[in-house]
Design goal:
12 strands, 13 helices, homodimer, DNA-binding, alpha/beta, 6-stranded parallel beta sheet
DNA sequence: CTGTTAGCGCATTCAT
DNA sequence: ATGAATGCGCTAACAG
């Protein structure tokens, strides 16, 4: 029923081994025989049996790209770039020669699903795996993922991290491309501070994610450097971790106007609301933020999508952007420039990063020294931020 | 080095066949033995060899989801929904039991790449393939894809079309879920007509795609029903195919004001500009449209992303939305409601469609009668459309 | 319910 | 440069 290598061999009057060699092209074969074989392949409409081939060769041409949310362009853009780099241009014949099968797997941000996908990929003896986006910081999951990646690497799978920080306990990976989330966030908040903002709200992502933490840390670095916050460390998990020095500080960062009040650790918490990385969360969180502190003059969002929700909430409160409240996002997704007003944000070179990750996964590019590279983030100042009212 | 089924069998003191039966769970095994086997699996940290298993069983657990553009949420949302339905909830153990490996493949809208991916999936003996989004109408490619799908189906791969119209020459597919693009587009334009618009520009997608054609046809149906266009048929390819009756018609659709002019086929063409399904194209095409016909009072875009670009172009021309020009999109992607003003558009139930496609691919849902289902599109009227000036 | 036997289709030694 | 032989790791009949 189904045509096999042997059938092709018979029709081309050569041995199966020769057909195999022609197809894999990594062995000298006489031009005339090759031609004969190729014709037989076409005549018979032969398609290589992937599983059989993978079994015999102990490797497959599958490359997995894991993303947190495939509906989010942040991941779509990176994954698309990586896939383009991996899949090769295709020869237009539809015959599919030595191409890798680059596939993207949607974890939905769930560590369990991430682990399941890694196991599935391991089972397929994937040639490479690219993990994109921030990691969950739960120690158990971190350890489980780490162990799994080590096993994958041991089995010959190339592991590449893209937009995910390398984990402390030295996973085995070919390369880790980490975004400078902290630096970008710091510069963004510095921009707002330089405009004269002092009461800046922060709509953060899910508390347990590295991306969330780094961006928040960058923001707070800037705030503290301006004397506008307490000195708690890291991301509080939301409970009562304030260090009780509310509102009494007297450091002199030149708060403008009579109502400028120096922030403390308690303030820092009050001005931070966590949510998911989606529009709806941004909307809800911003409403909450405005309820807690009606006098914020600027809102920094975890990413552009969240910023969009924030804008909607602010407008619904009857406030104007940027006249009453400035808004800033992160990532510089394509739609951000079209927001009204255009969104001030931090640009991450997603295409470049994804493509580079793809090349690293294919072994087409030499890894950065130490395997780790930090990718710069660029501040994009646009219309959604302006000096606060009365300044 | 690598642990195999036999190793597990030895440790559990059973035969390899029994281990296989436990792992696949589709055969009666004594509870005690199963437990012993499972422990051995855990002890040895055994991972099934996918290729070997697929080879022996002549099927794999791979399910491919093809999308035109993974960076476009339109596809991301559908693919995510399908993947969730296919991948199963995962059991949290990371052990990966009977799960399918749902993967998405990005064709970038290129028929060659689409074909290549199909071949790759065929090679892997994929359990199912879901094709999302519109098809390219080039006859050669249509035939090639059709032949390939037939072969896939013959080999036991379940083929599902999601958001793609079934092709005329009866491909073998389990089911085809087609969006009512034409009806949705017609109702959208009817909405604009009912507001009093007469000079309506259309920023279309790539000319050779089914989605583009159907939406454009719906638009023109409405225009013609209002006596506002010629009677050419189908999508003109852009050349001089006008039927020369420009501006002389006298059908009485009550054009408002003195400057309403009845359109002819030539007008129909002049008011249509083709581009890609992205923001940049929408921007460029709208600029071109405004150049050709400065007096348009409404612009209908091929989709929401394009509409965003259109808005930017219109504003750059110093025109207000919707006071000077109304704008409408298609798809109702999440960001559309946050546009300013909120975008009037046509809602497609992407999540439902994707999930249904996923279930169909898994054989978890019975196909619609005849294998074909049309999915309704719902008009969403929002702030970006209003009566034209002076009405 | 469990063990035995026999391939699945191909890549790869080793010969020639 | 090509052919012959071997086995990759597993599942699917068949027994029992």
């Amino acid at each position: 029923m189904t045509v096999t290598l042997a059938d092709v061999a018979a029709r081309a009057r050569v041995s199966p081994a020769t057909v195999s060699r022609v197809l894999n092209g990594n062995y000298p074969v006489a031009a005339s025989t090759r031609e004969r074989v190729l014709r037989a392949v076409d005549d018979l409409d032969y398609v290589l049996n992937g599983p059989a081939s993978s079994l015999a060769a102990a490797t497959s041409d599958l490359v997995g790209i894991l993303v947190n949310d495939i509906a989010d362009p942040f991941f779509g853009i990176m994954a698309g770039a990586a896939q383009t780099e991996i899949g090769g241009p295709g020869d237009g014949s539809g015959r599919a020669g030595g191409e890798k099968l680059a596939v993207v797997c949607n974890t939905g941000g769930s560590p369990e699903r991430e682990l399941t996908y890694l196991t599935l990929l391991q089972r397929q003896r994937a040639a490479a795996v690219v993990l994109t986006g921030g990691a969950v910081e739960d120690p158990a999951h971190r350890a489980a993922i780490s162990a799994k990646l080590t096993k994958l690497a041991d089995a010959g799978t190339r592991v590449v991290l893209c937009g995910r920080p390398p984990l402390p306990d030295g996973e085995a990976f070919v390369a880790a491309l980490a975004f400078d989330n902290r630096g970008g966030a710091r510069r963004l908040t510095e921009h707002l501070l330089s405009l004269g903002h002092r009461r800046i709200g922060y709509v953060a992502g899910p508390a347990e994610r590295t991306t969330t933490r780094h961006r928040l840390e960058g923001h707070r670095e800037a705030m503290r450097a301006a004397g506008l916050a307490g000195d708690g460390e890291g991301v509080p998990s939301g409970g009562e971790s304030g260090t009780a020095d509310g509102g009494s500080g007297a450091s002199g960062a030149g708060a403008a106007g009579g109502r400028g009040r120096q922030g403390g650790a308690r303030d820092e918490e009050r001005l931070t609301v966590h949510g998911l990385y989606d529009r709806r969360s941004g909307y809800d969180a911003t409403l909450e933020l405005l309820r807690r502190e009606p006098e914020v003059t600027a809102v920094v969002a975890a990413n552009d999508t969240v910023a969009l929700g924030a804008c909607a909430a602010i407008r619904e409160r009857g406030l104007r952007i940027p006249e009453d409240v400035s808004v800033a996002g992160f990532d510089d997704l394509p739609f951000s420039v079209d927001a009204v007003p255009a969104l001030t944000t931090v640009r991450l070179p997603l295409v470049e990063a994804g493509a580079r990750a793809g090349r690293l996964a294919m072994g087409k590019e030499t890894p950065p020294p130490g395997g780790i590279a930090t990718i710069a983030a660029e501040l994009m100042v646009r219309g959604s931020t302006a000096p606060p009212r009365g300044r």
